[in-house]
Amino acid sequence: MDPVELIWRKREFVAWEDAQTHVLSHGLHYGTGVFEGIRCYDTPRGPAVFRHQDHLDRLEKSAELYYLELPYSAEEIRLATHELLRRNDLRSAYIRPLAYRGYGSLGLYAKDAPVDVIIAAFPWGAYLGEESKNGGIRAKVSSWRRISPAGSIPHAKASGSYLNSILAKTESSNAGYDEAILLDERGFVCEGSGENIFVVRDDQILTPPHVASILDGINRKSVIQIARDLGYTVVERDIARAELYLADEVFLTGTAAELVPVREIDDHPLGDPGEVTRQVQAKFEDALCGKAEEYLEWLDFVETPDASDSPGANGSESIGRITPAA
Ligand code: PPE
Q1: Is the entire prediction scored with pTM above 0.90?
Q2: For this structure, is 157 an active site residue?
């Protein structure tokens, strides 16, 4: 991890190394936190946060699902994120807001543990390796099933849920693969350890429905729309495990990973990234970087001193501009 100067915490900008938490914080013991993974891209019209509002909406919903009361509005978190990017002089970054139960009480009904919120932003390169987006990755179906809605909430982006992803990822990495694919308790395909999954078969693009035990990814939504706009038929339905091996093409989507082709699953070769994957990926990457006019509305432009007159600057800032540190 590459440290930057500042982290936002409880309405203050604190030095990266001073953003510490008490060892008896509730979230550390029980995983009682909710978070987001967001990216900011350096577009031709200045830095822009991709689908910022959608991420903030999901953060609020994740918090609601676990009875966490966020002490700040989504708008305050949005503007604080802009300010954090400016103060850290970041034009592109991975952004990690986290709301967790802090220090105050332990035990499972932690009414005295406050909800603490931090926002970090820092450089984070290709999640599945530099070559992944071009050459594709090797995946393994995990022996660990995706958390079930009967015992937890797959739709919440909650810290504790990631123990499930970590088991799957550890298993696949130890076995020499790049990523794990998790099935649900019925044996149908869910998603990667940190990405949603798409399968191309017979000129259709398939993806598990949003009611499956998946995180309803924001990039998943974007890719469904892009693929449909390109004229493809996208079908949300259960996907059998064997369909992964019989697929013409498979790819994964996520904020950290972006769009990554899969070239092999459980030692069944799928070949080099195919035409559908390539076409959707190219448009998706253009959308992320502000190079696709039709998807500019997905970008939340960060006003910066040198870009304040650009057409992308949305002018809705209420925090004064700060010259980034040299
Ligand atoms: N499923 C899971 C389980 C998941 O963690 C992610 C994002 C997605 C799907 C895709 O969601 P979206 O980013 O909204 O398209 N994973 C985040 C965390 C990765 C991490 O290692 O931490 C991410 O990509 O930021």
Answers
A1: yes
A2: yes
